[in-house]
Each structure stands twice: as structure tokens, then as C-alpha cells.
Amino acid sequence: MFDNVWLIPLFPLIGFLINGFFGKKIKNEAVIGGIGTLMIFLSFIVSCGILMQMIGLPAEQRVFEKVVFPWIHSGNLKVDMAFLLDPLSCVMIMVVTGVGTLIHLYSIGYMHGEEGFYRFFAYLNLFCMSMLLLVLGNNMLVMFIGWEGVGLCSYLLIGYYFHKKSAGDAAKKAFVMNRVGDFGFLIGMFTLFWWFGSNHNIWTINFTEIKAASHLLPYGGVVTVATLCFFLGATGKSAQLPLYTWLPDAMEGPTPVSALIHAATMVTAGVYMIGRMSFVFIKSPETMMVVAVIGAATAIFAATIGTAQNDIKRVLAYSTVSQLGFMFLAMGVGAFTAGIFHLMTHAFFKACLFLGSGSVIHSMHHALHHAHSHDDAQDMRNMGGLKSAMPITFITFLVSTIAIAGIPGFSGFFSKDEILWQAFSNPFHGQLNMVLWGVGAIAACFTAFYMFRLVFMTFFGECRITPKAKGHLHESPLVITIPLMVLGLLAVVGGYIGLPKLIGDMLGGIPNYFEHWLEPVFAQAHEYSTQYAHAGGHHSHSLEWGLMGLSVVIALIGITIAFTLYIKNTELPGKFTATFPALHRAVYNKWYMDELYDFAIVNPCKALGRFLWKGFDVVVIDGIVNGVANVVLGFSGIFRFIQSGLIGNYAWSMAFGVVVILGYYVFK
Amino acid sequence: MSIPILSILVFLPLAGCLLLLPAWNCRRLARPIALVVALTELTLALWLYASWKGLAVNPFPQGFLLLEDAPWIPAFGIRYTLALDGISLLMIMLTAIVFCVGLAVSWDSIKERTSLFLSMMLVMEAGIMGVFLALDLALFYLFWEMMLIPMFFLIGIWGHGRRLYSTLKFFLFTMSGSLLMLLAIIALHLLYAQQTGVSSFQLQELLKVQLPLETQLWLYAAFFLAFAIKFPLFPLHTWLPDAHTDAPTAGSVILAGLLLKTGSYALIRFGYPLFPQAAQMMTPLFYSLALIGIFYASLVAFAQQDMKRLIAYSSIGHMGYVAIGIAAWQPVALSGAIIQMANHGVTTAALFCMVGMLDERAHTREIAAFGGLWGKLPLWSFFFLLFAVTAMGVPGLNNFVGEFLILAGTIKSSPLVAVLAFCGIVFPLIYMVRLVQEVVFQKERQPLSLNDLNPREIGILAILALLDIWMGIHPAPLLEMLHVPVQLLTGGTP
Where are the transmembrane segments (chain A) (predicted)? Predict the structure, then answer.
């Protein structure tokens, strides 16, 4: 099965080619959607086969590399198109193809009747191929193909409704900000490449080879430079401070795109990348600290903005940014397994939330359309009381909300609690640990608050759309609700493969399967970390229990506030905004980050471009040139008789001139 | 090999001009003749490519695969020396392809003086082939001028807008550069004669001249200026946007696809080997001009309203990367620069073709006139998107391979330059995305009734697109071809 790994990205590529070139002629939505879904499902089957085979192997043999063909060979630089299978890439391909299949299926229903249906599925397949290349690449450059490829597909899919200017602008923004990060990725890659090459004559950008040679890397120094560059790449792709502003705007794309690309897969690429290179990152304590701080800062920053948004998808977008912050926090405190675990559980519950919001929007749109109302179908202020009309959507949505809020027993609790505990107890950051934990805990409180605010505003209370439209509200068809149910189920049970040791012991020694599974991948990093980590890390069980309890209490506080504000005393939020108008404006306007970017970067660049062209190119350089030319033209007027316009004459006079000059030099 | 294939490559297009004479007034006959000649050239070039591994590597001149050498003007020691190595082979293939594209794309659009146009094209092809093959500097200079004059007429006769101004500007710029180069060639020749008592213009001979550093600097400066104008490097670039904007489509395709490459090619072939210390000393200047060019051209491209002008400025920016790759003078970066010359040639030629096709339909190239073409011209939009994405340097497509290698090599020799140049890779994305956004996507701004691409145009673009993809996914054979000459040039062992 391992040998067939190249099939995994190949199937979606075939789907892309079929739908891209013939989709327009096929026309039949069932066939187009069927092909798209089938292709990614086939990849899922192959991935399952690979997972099964890998489970059957002893832990130390779970690494496999497959070279498909040589790609760029120049001088010392030898890069092959090659894939790497190990427990980490296995987790990723399972998430990408599994969640991917469900979202493809969902899209058949959601995108029904859209103009360019085939285009959507072609892009979606192309995206899956790129994402699979990203997670399967055995060297940084193949990863980078995927890295840029997903950026491109994201651009195409955000801009899917290309007639809308806002969609186009959002797509552009996403692409450009991603590219800013990519620049960091490339520099990081080259720094490592030349460092190994010139110092140890090891010329490679291959992950396994770098891992094998990673003991040669110093702590800090060049590694800090390289990893900070890589991390810049991660902030672009995974929407962290300061490059996060594209993600909320990316909600202009169709909802399945938000679920697949901007929640479950692409935006987690940065987290995956750090995991893949954990043995390099761990060697720079400085970078680890930066990653942890940026992660925590993003988690709380985005969470605050999430509390004041009224667009259902925007709330989820900020939530995604915030949850990604949690994952980076985990990476930064050396809890790689916890980070990847949260990546996986987040993929389940956030995909479910996005798809659920899509189901709501779908229904709202339908109802408003029938009532000839022009209200915004995504604005939560127009919703309310949808739970009776859409029971399946409501239940799956609620389950996922509980999961993300961190209520015990649901998947999000296990992963998020693990991250908070590691932030508190890790042996790397000393006094900073308390701050990291505190910020994380407050962000978790905000998360519970804004998610339940969303649920209460959408599904509870009075229905705020016109009675005429209300009658048209209905549950979505099965093709939409089946993926919701599957993902909702995973949002509940997905966490049990990674039970914290504390709980596992209590339940009679259930091991943390997930941690064991990823152990060989991160073993190297943990070994390096012991070199400089101070001997902390021995915390009592009672402390761990206490913090776990505290994080549950925090989540409950968030939920209670949401309940008070949006169910019990619905006039309170209005009063609050009236009392603190400036604060509300700032939060509602996303702390004016977009305006800041426009002011500091975008507008100056535009103005400079115009100036250089009109001011410098045309006036200065051409001024000089034309001045010279005019003098020449003046002379040429005198010699006009030479300018006969016949090529022969020109050629002859030139040849003559050459001969004269040559003659002068030779015979002088 | 007994067949003088290099001479055939150079002189076949000229023979094609003679073939055109009987059909001078018959457009229907003249066009196929010219195309057949161009296709024959392409076949020869591909045949060379298919068989280059079987060719023995010549001991003299080192690293070359084929050599055709005969005395020409013995009085001055001028020889007729044509030679082929991996670098020139890549350039020959590019030339052959771009000319086929140039002829095919102007199949219908050149309606006046068609035969004159075709013969100009063929003369230019002969000249460019010669430039890429000549190893005798006098011969090289002859070809160098030979490709210039037809372009002058191409813009002057079949161009649009301020074509006379543009063509004159182009001519003056390039002419002044090449005159300086001519002086330097002659001076070099004389110095050689002084030192050895023999007169020669042959590169391999002239390499033996011992030059004091000061002389080297002066001579190199003259060469550099001529090549920098062709590149074009900032601030010698202003002829390019004008020439492109006013040139007919075929003119733009050849200008961007080939003429710009002659400058970089000549710098690699003659400039650096002849004046190594001087080149070394001028590297900081070269780097700075290239870097300024990248940022400057990109920013200006961002402000353009005319599609063709935007692509012209983007060309300056992309060639800045080639310049950086050469300035690094390091095997990986140099391979990257050479492969990037081919990549840029294909991609930019395609973009100019596409703008030309749009211009023929809508009679305007203003970005503001379009919008929402995806709905109206799906095929055109598809290809445009593909080529724009290529120009942005997305991996898996060819431009990425070149940029990647250039930066991979440069970061070794001068990290600061490489990092600055890396910053620059954001720009092509910004202005190309803007272009795509405003032309292909969004709502249509003016009701235009346009027909989508016809089979001829699809054929041209499909071939270029396949080349882009093929060179992006599987550049290994081309890189292998460049390996020996690049190693020899940079002083390594092949």
C-alpha cells in the first residue's frame, strides 16, 4: 500500500482535469459533483489502507519515502518529487481526505444551481491535490508546491463569485498576504540548506535527512533566523498576527470553501509545518518563545473581535484565527502532539460549525428570497429561533459549539485543556508560562462566550425575520445534513483517542493513543529539548486536576455571560454598547487593523508607483532621453537625404561604417 | 558531423527571404513559406536537442558540442566561427519556438506589406540565431546589428500609436550601446594583436589577452552598457515600455521573448569570461541596478492602465532576477538565470500574444475597458489566468524554477541581495492579480461583443501553456544540458 502513496494526490488531480476541461460540457450536476466527490473519496480509501498498514508496523519502522521523479537538479541542489509517509503525515492525509470527502458531498447540495458548478468542483479537487502534496512532501520544496498551490486555490475559491467586487478584493488580499509569508518560508529553507551545505557538506532540503543531521545544528543562532523565517511563512498561511486580516475577509467565498480551506485544512498548514520541523524549531528557544507569544496573542486578539461581529461566518472566521492561535501556543511550548491533536479536533468541530452555518444561510436565503426580502441572510440579527425549523443543523451545531467551548466529554475539551496545561507546566518559558496560561484561559472564556452568543442569537429566542419568510424556513436536504451528522459525531468522540493521562489513568489505564502514535515523530525534538529545558515540569496531579477544573469553570462563565446577555436580558448588550461606544466601535471594526494596513502599506505603495511612473520614468529619464533625441533629430534633419527608408541603404551604410572604423584602427 | 547544421540554422531564414521573392505579392503563399521555414528551424533545433547527448564534447573550445570554423576576412583575422553548447542550444530552441509563435500570432493581423513583414521576421531570426551561435566577436557584432534593424522597421511600419517616436527611441538606445561595444571589441582586438602579433576576433583567442585592470574596466563598461540596455537595466529601460506598447504583437513577442535575452546571453558568454576582474568589481553596481529595477519596475507596473505597458514593466522586473542570477556568478544561480531566460521568454511571449488577441477584438488595451471576461471569453480567460499565475511564480510552473534557482544560488554569495530580491517576489503577484481581477473577473464595464479564441490561437497558446507546465514540472533535462557549460564558466570542474 505504501508504494501507492502517489495515488493520493493523483486522484484529485484527475478529478480537477475532468471537471476543469469537460465539466462545462457535462453540465449534469450529479455527474460533476459525483466525480469530484468520488476522486477525493478514493484518496480517502487509499489513505485508510496506508493507515492500516502503518498501524500494523512497529513504531520505529513507520517511516516510508517514495521518489516519484527527479525534479530540480542543479549543482548541489537536488530536489525530487518525493513523498514521505510517517504517523504525522498519516494523520494529516486522513483529516484532509476524510473531511474533504464530507465537504465535497455537502457541496453537491449547497452549490446546487450555482453558475459555474463544475468550476467549483474543479478548484476544490485542485485544492485537495495541493493540500495533499503539502502534507506528503518529503522535502521542503514539494511542501512548498502545495503551500503555494493551496494559496492559489484559496484565491480562486474566495473569488468564486467573481462578479462581486468584495469577493475579488478578499481573494486578492488572501493571496498577497499568503505570498508575504511564503517569502519567509523560502528564506528559511535556503538558510538551512546553505548552512548544512557549507558547514557540513550535507546538501539537502529533505526532511528525513535534515532530521538525521539535526544534531549538528546549534542552539539558537542560525536556527533562530531560519525558524523565524519559517514562522513568518506560518503566520501568513495560518492567519496569525500580524498577517491574519485576510482570513475574515475570505468568508466571501462559498461556505464549503470556508469549512474546508479556512477552517479544517489549509490554515492549519503552518501548524503542520512546525510539527514537521519540530526538531529544528526546538533548537531555538527564542523562536519557540515567539511562536508561543504570537499564538497566545492571536488567540485572545481574535477572540475579542469575535464577540462583536454580527455576520455568522465572520464570528466563525475570528474563532478560527483564535483557535489557530491555540495551536501555535501549543507548538511554542513544545507540546507538538497537543497542537496536532487540536488541529484534528478543530478540523472536526469547526468544519461542522461552518457547514452548519452554511445550512442556516442556505435556509435563510431561501426563506428571504421567497419573501422578497433583501435582508442579509448571514446577519445573526435577522435570525433567531431556528432550532425548531432546523433540528439536525441545530443539534450538530450545538454539539460542535460545546466541543469548541471546552466542556468535558467533548473533543475540544481534551485538546484545548492539554494545550493550556502544557502552557502552564512546560519547562521552557519560565515565568512567562503563567502569562501564556492566563491569556489562553481568558481566550477560552471569550471563545465560550462568542460561540454561545452565536448559538443563542441564531437558534434561540424570537425569530426575527418577517412572518412571511418564516414559513419558508426548512431543514436542509440529506446531502447536507449527513456530513453535518458525521462531523458532529466526530466532534464528540474524536477526542477520546487522545485522553489526557490523568483521565486515562482514572478510567482504568486507557493510554493516550494519539500521543503514542505521534511519539516517533516528535521523539527527536523532545530529546533536544532536554538539553536546555530547566528541570521543572514536575507538577502534582492535584494541580493538574485543579487547572482542569478551572478551565471548565472559565468556559461555564463564558456561557453564562452569553446566556445572560442574549437570552435573559436581551437589552443588556445594547446598553453595554451605549455605555462604551468607543470600545464597541474599536472591537466591531476589528481594532482598525485593515485601516492600519491601508494607511501604512497599501496606499503609500500605490502612490509611490504612480509617482515613479509619472514623475520619474516619464519626466526625469525620458526627459533626458528625449532631450538627447531632439538634438540627434536636429542633426538628422540636415542629413535627411540619407534616410531614404530603404533597408538596403541602411544595411550598406552600416557595413560601410563598420569597415571605415575597422580600417581606421587597423591602418592608423 | 558533416552537415553544417549551425550554418543552416543561421542561413535558412535568409534563404527563406529569397523564397519569398516569387510570392512577394501573394499573401496566401508568402505566409505558409515563412511558417514552413520557421518550423524547419524548430525541427532542426529540436533534433539538436534530442541528440545533444550523443555529441562529443569538443576539447576546443572547451565544453562546446559543435563547432563550425572557417577563415572569413583574413586581413583582419575575422573568422566565421559558430559553436554550440548547452546554453546556446537552449536559446536556439527558444528562438525557434518564439518565431513560430510570432509568425502564427500575426497570421491574420498583418494585412499590409505582408511579405515585407515576413522577410523582416526571417532576417531577424537569422540575426538572433547568429547572436546565440557566434564565437567570433566581429561576426557576433554583425549578427547583433542584423537583428536590430528589422525590429526598427517592425515597430516603425506595423506598429501603432506613437510608433515612430518609439522605434526611434529603441533604435537610438540600442545603437548607442552597440557602438560602444564595437569600439571595445576593436580595442580588444588591437590589444591582442599587440601582445601576440596575430590578429583575431575569436573569443577563445581573445580570452588569452592580459589586460591591466583599468583597461578591463573601461572595456567591460562598454560591453556592459550595450548589454544593460538590452536587458534592460534601470535606468536604461525607458525604451522598452514605449517599444512594447507601440509594437505589433509579433514585435512585442520577439522583443520580450528574444531580444532582451541577447543582452543577458552576451553578458554570460562574452562579458564575464573576457573581463573577469572587472566584472567582479562591478558586481555591486550590477546587483544594485538589478534590485532597483525589480522594485522600481514592479511599483510602476502596479500603476499602469494599459495592459501591454503593464506586462512590459513586469518584463523589466523579471529580467532583474536574471541579472541577479548572473551577477552572483555561481553555478546554481547562473543555471537559474539561464533557465529563467527561457522561462520568461515563453511566458511573456504568451502574455503579449494574449493582449494582442484581445486588442484585435476590442481595439483597446485599457484595463478599465474590460471586466468580467470570464463569462464572455472563457478560453481566453483560462489561458490568461494560467499565464498570469505562471508569471507570479507559482511552483509547479516554469517561472518558479528559475526564480528559485537564482535565489538559491544568490543567497550563498550575497545573502542581503537575495533577501531583498526575495521581498520582490511579492510584487509580480500583486500586479498580476490586480490585472486578472480587473480584466477577467468582476462585472463587465463596457458592453463589448467579442468572439472567443479561434483554433489557431488556441493552438499557439496551448503549446506555450504546455511548455510552461513541462518546464515547471520537469526541468531536469534542461538543467542537465546547462550543467557542463555553467560549471566551466564559473570555474568549476564539470
Answer: 6-23, 30-55, 81-105, 117-136, 142-162, 174-196, 216-236, 287-308, 315-341, 389-414, 434-456, 477-499, 545-567, 616-638, 650-667
Contact residues, chain A, for B401 at CB < 8 Å = 72
Question: How many domains is chain A partitioned into structurally?
Answer: 2
pLDDT in tens, B168-183: 888 888 888 888 889 8
Cell 543552416 -> residue: B8
In a domain, A255, yes or no: no
Q: Which domain holds residue A362?
A: 345-518+546-588
Q: What is the pLDDT of residues B276-297, one digit of tens each?
A: 888 888 899 999 999 988 888 8
Distance from CA of B2 to the nearest CA of A (A): 31
Beta carbons of B412 and A194 less than 8 Å apart: yes
Whether B173 and chain A come into contact, CB under 8 Å, resolves to yes
Q: Please provide the average confidence, as pLDDT, over all residues in chain A.
A: 83
- pLDDT confidence of residue A423: 85
- Let me know whether A650 and A584 are in one domain: no
The ipTM estimated for the assembled molecules is: 0.84
Rounded CA-CA distance B265/B491 in Å is 18
Query: Both A415 and A397 in a single domain?
Result: yes
CA quadruple A667, B149, B147, B355: dihedral, nearest 10: 160
How much is the pLDDT for A638? 54
DSSP 3-state of B82: strand
* Four-point Cα dihedral A308, A313, A319, A325, nearest 10: -120
pLDDT at site A666: 55
Of A588, A621, A641, which one is at a domain's C-terminal end? A588
Q: Is A538 on the interface with B (CB under 8 A)?
A: no
A583 and A599, same domain (yes or no): no
Angle (nearest 5°) at CA B375 between B369 and B378: 100
**Is there a domain that residue A414 lies in?**
yes
What does the alpha-carbon distance between residue A609 and residue A615 come to, in Å, rounded to a whole number?
Answer: 10
Kindly state whether residues A559 and A603 are assigned to the same domain.
no
Cell readout for A638 is: 540636415
If asked whether residues A478 and A454 sit together in one domain, one would say yes
Tell me: do A383 and A498 sit in the same domain: yes
Radius of gyration over every alpha carbon of chain B, rounded to an integer in angstroms:
22
Residue % of chain B over a pLDDT of 90: 28
- A329-379 per-position pLDDT tens digit: 999 888 898 899 999 999 999 999 999 998 888 888 888 887 777 777 787
| Contacts with B190 from chain A: Cβ below 8 Å | 665
The x, y and z cell numbers of residue B486, run together, are: 555553467
Provide mean pLDDT across the span A499-525. Answer: 80
**Alpha-carbon distance A238 to A272, whole Å?**
10
Nearest by CB to B422, from A152, A175, A186: name it: A186
Which pLDDT value is given to residue A536?
A: 55
**Which residue, among B228, B226, B257, B265, has the nearest Cα to B85 in the 3D structure?**
B265
The angle formed by the CA atoms of residues A485, A488 and A494, to the nearest 5 degrees, is 130
Is the four-CA dihedral A424, A430, A434, A440 of positive or negative sign?
A: negative
Q: Does A326 reach chain B within 8 Å, measured CB to CB?
A: no
- pLDDT score at A630: 66
**Helix, strand, coil percentages, rounded to 5, for chain B:** 75, 5, 20
Four-point Cα dihedral A252, A256, A262, A264, nearest 10 = 170
- B21-56 burial: b if 16+ Cβ within 10 Å, else e: eebeeebeebbebbbebbbbbbebbeebbeebeeee
Residue A155, in any domain of the structure? no
CA of A384: how far to CAs of A116, A461, A469, A573, A576, in Å?
32, 6, 13, 16, 21
Grid cell of A333 as nine digits: 511550548
Q: Does the pLDDT value for residue A64 go beyond 70?
A: yes
Highest mean pLDDT among A591-600, B197-206, B324-333: B324-333
- Give the pLDDT confidence of B354-381 residue by residue, as tens digits: 999 988 888 888 888 887 788 888 888 8
CB of B370 within 8 Å of a chain A CB? The answer is no
Residue A647's pLDDT is 55
